[in-house]
């Protein structure tokens, strides 16, 4: 087992050299897209946001779950991974250090090699929403469609895209035929957008636009804006920005090797300073709202959880305020799992912004910098005459005070600008008479 403790400055110098090498191998194809895109659709059973990526030789379409705070791309290599261009990362190679390998050696227990199980190969930690393991680091061909303005363009190919090869049981609970996850995390040279930006020399940024429908695709743009949601609307034009907070991470994994990881977390943390409902400031515990050095408290953004999670005391204050700001004729009804605050929807009004709900503001670095959550993102219909506050109480005793989940980001454009270390929120696209599935990119 080998560990690769490295200071981040050395790390980026190393990364830079790697870029020079890969760019020469790419020069045979001189197509340099500025923006790439993926279509993404919510799986009705797992509520994960699923995209399709083409990988291997010959190319195979793979369904992968989006993991905004994930370190890298990983796929199930146990079930029928066939490719003439699969390269396991050899011990001490560049790929191992870029992918922050945590161990190195032979595939234990067997003398037969296959993708995911080679000798003299390195491993890193692969995580899914409720499990983790270690996976062989490898590279293979990956292709993805480009876009120019609002016009889909040629397919772009990365010959040596670095990923991890995991055991198939890690795909449990991701959805039907979902073969892995694609991580867009920060501070990781092998995260999806970062590798593509390095290969095609565009800026390190991407934007997600999740559809509220399980039938119609939303879109993820990777690379330069504009981000055209509909033919005439570039959703990158008016965003509300807040800085990305980086955080060192220390954690220990004992299976199958003892590993202590000490590096910047790939998760996206931001500072929510206060919460307002219908303009009224809620009394929340400020300590909880601040991320501490143990990765506790604060606010994180996650597409891997369907509904925003709030620490219990915060949930309580938000729920009470929301109930008291609801129109009087909208009565509370018994809870419907996983929600705790539900209403009879018979007398609630509707507009183009969804249900007429109290407006929720997540206030960032200043009182006048805030993201607005409207009825379409704060209430969910659970049956014919019942709607619920689409926030859930955090079950774990520790973790972030607020984890912004998929439902609240639907039909908003959320831009992750790594080059400038900031995240931009568009507010609901319903204000602009459009939505994330309005594009014509299918
Ligand atoms: C995008 O389209 C414009 C005109 O439609 C063209 O001039 C430009 O070269 C294209 N950019 C790329 C990266 O293909
Ligand atoms: C070892 O290889 C054989 C076939 O070559 C395979 O059937 C078996 O599952 C492998 N065992 C492990 C532990 O990977
Ligand atoms: C693996 O190969 C080594 C050396 O060739 C041999 O000694 C060992 O028995 C083999 N193990 C298995 C499980 O086949
Ligand atoms: C997944 O499979 C590996 C063997 O491939 C096993 O060791 C591990 O315990 C399994 N993990 C879970 C969560 O089932
Ligand atoms: C605020 O939260 C912190 C961290 O959980 C806790 O130690 C503290 O007692 C809380 N303060 C109040 C006033 O509840
Ligand atoms: C909702 O209100 C309507 C009209 O008062 C009533 O008929 C219905 O039973 C109520 N539903 C629930 C779940 O309380």
TrEMBL record:
Coiled-coil region: none
Main location: secreted
One GO biological process term: proteolysis
Domain annotation Peptidase A1: ranges: 49-426
Keyword rRNA-binding: no
Cellular component per GO, a single term: extracellular region
Signal peptide: 1-27
Single Gene Ontology MF annotation: aspartic-type endopeptidase activity
Keywords: Secreted, Signal
Subcellular location: Secreted, Extracellular space
InterPro entries on file: Aspartic_peptidase_A1, PEPTIDASE_A1, Peptidase_aspartic_dom_sf, TAXi_C, TAXi_N, Xylanase_inhibitor_I-like
Highest taxon of the lineage: Eukaryota
Name of protein: Peptidase A1 domain-containing protein
Gene source species: Capsicum annuum (Capsicum pepper)
């Amino acid at each position: 087992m080998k560990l690769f403790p490295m200071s981040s400055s050395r790390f980026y110098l190393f990364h830079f050299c790697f870029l020079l090498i890969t760019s020469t191998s790419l020069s045979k194809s001189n197509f340099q897209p500025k923006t790439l895109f993926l279509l993404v659709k919510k799986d009705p059973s797992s509520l994960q946001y699923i995209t399709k990526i083409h990988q291997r030789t010959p190319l195979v379409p793979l369904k992968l779950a989006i993991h905004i705070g994930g370190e890298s791309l990983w796929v199930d290599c146990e079930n029928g991974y066939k490719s003439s261009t699969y390269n396991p990362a050899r011990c001490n190679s560049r790929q191992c250090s870029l992918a922050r390998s945590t161990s190195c050696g032979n595939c234990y227990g067997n003398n037969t090699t296959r993708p995911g199980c080679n000798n003299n190969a390195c491993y890193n930690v692969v995580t899914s929403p409720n499990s983790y393991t270690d996976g062989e680091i490898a590279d293979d061909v990956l292709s993805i469609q480009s876009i120019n303005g609002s016009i889909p363009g040629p397919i772009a190919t990365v010959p040596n895209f670095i990923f991890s090869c995991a055991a198939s049981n890690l795909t449990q609970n991701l959805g039907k035929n979902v073969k892995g996850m694609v991580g867009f995390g920060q501070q990781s040279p092998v995260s999806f957008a970062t590798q593509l930006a390095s290969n095609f020399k565009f800026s390190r940024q991407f934007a997600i636009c999740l559809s509220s429908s399980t039938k119609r695709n939303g879109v993820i743009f990777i690379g330069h804006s504009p981000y055209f949601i509909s033919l005439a609307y570039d959703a990158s034009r008016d965003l509300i920005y807040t800085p990305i907070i980086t955080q060192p991470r220390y954690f220990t994994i004992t299976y199958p090797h003892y590993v202590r990881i000490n590096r910047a977390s790939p998760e996206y943390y931001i500072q929510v300073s206060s919460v307002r409902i219908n303009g009224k400031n809620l009394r929340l515990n400020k300590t909880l709202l601040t991320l501490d050095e143990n990765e506790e408290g604060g606010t994180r953004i996650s597409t891997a959880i369907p509904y925003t999670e709030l620490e219990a005391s915060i949930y309580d204050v938000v729920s009470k305020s929301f109930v008291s700001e609801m129109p009087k004729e909208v009565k509370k009804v018994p809870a419907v799992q996983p929600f705790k605050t539900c209403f009879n929807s018979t007398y609630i009004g509707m507009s183009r912004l969804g249900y007429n709900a109290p407006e929720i503001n997540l206030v960032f670095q200043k009182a006048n910098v805030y993201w607005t959550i409207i009825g379409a993102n704060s209430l969910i219909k659970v049956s014919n005459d019942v709607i619920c506050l689409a926030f859930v109480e955090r079950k774990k005793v520790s973790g972030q005070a607020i984890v912004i989940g998929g439902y609240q980001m639907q039909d908003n454009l959320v831009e992750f600008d790594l080059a400038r270390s900031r995240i931009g929120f568009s507010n609901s696209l319903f204000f602009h008479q459009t939505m994330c599935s309005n594009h014509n990119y299918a």
